[in-house]
Amino acid sequence: MLLQVLAINSHLGCPAKMNLDMAVDEGGPSRQFLSDAWKQLHALTVPVIGKDGKTIEKVKLFEHAGKALELIPIMDDEFTRSIAKVAEGDAIEEATHRLKLYSRAAARLMVCT
What we know:
Blueprint: H1 2-9, H2 15-18, H3 28-40, E1 45-49, E2 56-60, E3 62-64, E4 71-73, H4 76-86, H5 90-112
Antiparallel strand pairs: 1-2, 3-4
Helix pairs in contact: 1-5
């Protein structure tokens, strides 16, 4: 999902990146925010309501590639298998919808940095 979002939106560019030198804050807080977001991206998870309807499981969107900031996005089929292990019915649809939203946000962050 994330790779698809990146591929679809890669032609749009990122206005924040193009105008980085013109930022009112001169890149200080904005750059710090992006740096902190990148450091925490590996912990991004999608909450999934368990089969019992009470427990909430967390399914990761990224895996570490070995080095500190190298991340590998979880592929759609692997994500779907992870969800199917812990949820059923409407919970699967809701988690898939959240995956799309989270992937879009992560892709925007990646494109803008």
